[in-house]
Amino acid sequence: MTGKRIGYKRVSTAEQNPDSQLIGIELDKVYVEIETGYSVKNRHQLQDLKEYVRDDDIVFVECMDRLGRNGDDLDDIVEFLLGKGVEIRFVREGITLGKKNDLMSKLAYDMLKSFIHFFSQLFKERQQIGIDKAKKEKKYRGGKPLAPLKVLLLKEAMQTTRKTKSQIAKEIGISRASIYKYMKEEKVS
After folding, report:
1. Are the C-beta atoms of residues 73 and 104 closer than 8 Å to each other?
2. Is residue 129 in some structural domain?
3. Angle formed by the axes of helices 71-83 and 103-136, nearest 10°
4. Last residue of a domain, which of 114, 130, 156?
5. 38 Cβ partners below 8 Å, 6+ apart?
6. What is the DSSP string of 15-61?
7. pTM of the model
8. How far is CA 83 from the centre of its chain?
9. 165 lies in which domain range?
């Protein structure tokens, strides 16, 4: 029995076009994710792919950083897929990982994964330097402010329900940290 040919496409924002990935590759099923790669917890299409794949399937990914942004996450995802008997093909890098790993593909994967991890950490370090500078200059205000509609929904939920902050955050589509920030700014207890 032959496995399925499955594509995984990920872009970070809605302005980016996932159609520019995996061009010309015949696929049985495609998962398209519009989500930043820094956390896998919000990458629902990736979770669906991980549940769907079976032994002998082939997963095609345009390039390694579309699957994971740092070396640890990339390794976790790759090891999970390999553990299910799946072959992974990173198209741009020309790397194939699977049951018949050859040493050169594994070496190339490990080297490129190291670069991905390095640049991810470098970006975070530069971002933190910028945040620290903005804080010293009293220009840093944290993340984006809540949209007015979400503020109204939050006010209503805080006054009328007995739900946990996690439940409220999930319903409104914000983080718990946003709720606590709002409570601090509005002096709500």
Report:
1. no
2. no
3. 140
4. 114
5. 69
6. TS-GGGSSTT---SEEEEEES-SS-STT-HHHHHHHHH--TT-EEEE
7. 0.69
8. 21
9. 148-186
For the chain, the domain total comes to 2
User: Which two structure tokens, joined as six digits, stand for 149?
Assistant: 């509609």
Instruction: Tell me the pairing of strands 87-90 and 5-11.
Output: unpaired
Q: How far apart are CA 33 and CA 174, in angstroms?
A: 19
Instruction: Characterize the bridge pairing of strands 87-90 and 58-61.
Output: parallel
User: Which pair of structure tokens corresponds to residue 86?
Assistant: 């799946």
| Burial of residue 136, with CB atoms counted within 10 A of its CB: 0-12 exposed, 13-18 middle, 19 or more buried | exposed
Amino acid at 4: K
Distance of alpha carbon 126 from alpha carbon 42, whole angstroms: 24
- Rg over alpha carbons for the chain, rounded to the nearest Å, is 21
Residues tagged active-site:
12
Please give the backbone phi and psi of residue 89, each rounded to the nearest 5 degrees, phi first: -120, 115
**Model pLDDT for residues 35-83, shown as the tens digit of each residue:** 776 666 778 999 999 999 999 999 999 999 899 878 888 999 999 999 9
pLDDT at 162: 77
Residues 6+ positions from 4 with CB-CB distance below 8 Å: 28, 29, 53, 54, 57, 58
Paired tokens of 25: 């590759």
